């Protein structure tokens, strides 16, 4: 069954090419004979009707005959045979061209056979090009959908890695606080449960900068129960950028990364700053390195992969002895 879009494309192509094909068939005959414009016009109209019928016949064969061979060159033979029978009948019953009266019957048959095969072959090629183009477009759409599905699955896998990582760290901190400071541990666990209640039901790829800053502020309050004045957090954001997006949970992950890899005290605090620079979000902190067991760049790799899947851009990491910064391209929703 032809789709509506494909049907419109065939009708449009047939409407444009039919008069042109008829013109190409008629011109050679009348350029070598005495010019008779009326006969020329009548012959052109007849070949227009003949070509249109050829289009209709091919479309009907494709639509009604549910066989694979109908899409091959055998359709040319079948439709040509039908058209030849019609053309031969017309030739015997109507004088389409006065010059044909000087031709013998075999010559007229050969001439009509040439016309029929030529017209039919052109229609076959045009139809074949239309179907191949539609098939290619459909294949491209299916490939794009499959690629998008794979990206969705890949992104979900990356996103699912964030929460277990965060929870593992949070539970480790809770365990340490319970041993050393039970009262503080109780406050921490309460704040943690409130924080998780907000984040656990969010199932999105990205969040607006405003939403990410709110999550980051809640996370900082949670961490200040442990570190107090040793942790400083500064935000300097262009308000026009607040509606733009970054991958969900990115700010919290970067803050957590800074806390994990640095030593800090109230006398030498960890200073985390979030700023916007043109179309980039910059998260930076002073460097006071701490030795950490295990892989040190897993969190950054996750953020980079999620950012690349959403925006097509890698994050930019700037690292030296005094400063560590991550630049992320803001996404316009």
TrEMBL record:
Which intervals hold domain Signal transduction histidine kinase internal region? 153-230
Q: Which residues form a coiled coil?
A: 134-161
* Highest taxon in the source lineage: Bacteria
GO terms of molecular function: phosphorelay sensor kinase activity
Query: Pfam families from the xrefs?
Result: His_kinase
Per the record, its GO cellular-component terms are: membrane
Q: Which InterPro entries match?
A: Bact_2-comp_sensor_kinase, Sig_transdc_His_kin_internal
Query: Keyword annotations for this protein?
Result: Coiled coil, Membrane, Transmembrane, Transmembrane helix
Q: Where are the transmembrane segments?
A: 12-31, 37-64, 76-97, 109-131
Task: Output this protein's name.
Answer: Signal transduction histidine kinase internal region domain-containing protein
